[in-house]
Design brief:
single chain, 245 residues, mainly alpha
Length: 245
């Protein structure tokens, strides 16, 4: 398999896992935000408590398992580390010539490709260092708090009491976890834009609160909702079925 094919495979796997983490987390957070704000919905949820507890447990378990997969350091697994290794070990895939060849395959005979590639950004060693530093800060956050929960609560039976489990969760912070998960999407976007469009990697501060995401999802322009906007909207729509007088 060529270096480009390997990078594309790892980039797509990272996109898939990052989106999954956002879906599981934001379905869970949106559920609690919606139920907290509406007494009718809380009554409806309580009438089907077993189903909703099962659903919320599945969201939580799936979130921690996929985060473990993303931040795993096993060199044989499809992880964030493997994606970054493919990028840093094969800088030629980001060259102007390689970009021009990819664009030519997408648009055979296009006359604009040569000029486009000439203006493309070519990453330097400092860019790869910055990408690794960005990922390293997120991995440190995961390892500091969430890795132990993943290992001892969800992946293995390492916790023998509710008290021990509660002690681990006491160190968590929902806003920190939201920013951590959405930073994965920012990292994917930076690498995708660099590879596909020859643009300098840029990291933006993602919108992460439920209220702000709901406002974004209601925009009427050509805005394409993010995965977190879509799952928040769907969660509110489903729970609204319980909003009966």
């Amino acid at each position: 398999m060529s270096p480009e094919a390997r990078f594309e495979r790892e980039l797509e796997q990272f996109r898939h896992d990052g989106n999954a983490a956002a879906q599981f987390l934001y379905a869970w957070v949106a559920f609690h935000a919606c139920a907290k704000a509406n007494s009718s919905i809380r009554r409806g949820v309580n009438e089907r408590a077993l189903f909703w507890n099962t659903t919320l447990g599945a969201f939580q378990t799936s979130l921690f398992l996929v985060l473990g997969r993303i931040f795993d350091l096993n060199p044989k697994s499809h992880t964030l580390e493997r994606l970054l290794r493919e990028a840093t070990n094969n800088p030629s895939i980001f060259s102007r010539g390689a970009l021009a060849q990819r664009k030519s395959k997408q648009s055979p005979g296009a006359t604009w490709i040569k000029d486009y590639a000439r203006e493309a950004y070519v990453p330097s060693d400092s860019d790869f260092t910055r990408l690794r530093r960005y990922a390293g800060v997120r991995r440190a956050t995961y390892q500091r708090v969430y890795q132990k929960i993943r290992h001892k609560v969800f992946a293995h039976s390492g916790i023998s009491s509710r008290t021990q489990s509660d002690a681990l969760f006491a160190n968590t912070n929902v806003h920190e976890l939201q920013r951590l998960v959405l930073s994965l999407g920012e990292l994917h976007e930076a690498l995708w834009q660099l590879y596909v469009n020859g643009r300098k990697p840029v990291f933006r501060r993602p919108t992460y609160t439920i209220s702000a995401l709901r406002r974004l999802a209601r925009r009427t322009d050509r805005h394409i909702p993010s995965i977190q906007e879509a799952i928040v909207t769907d969660t509110y729509d489903v729970l609204s079925l319980h909003d009966q007088p």
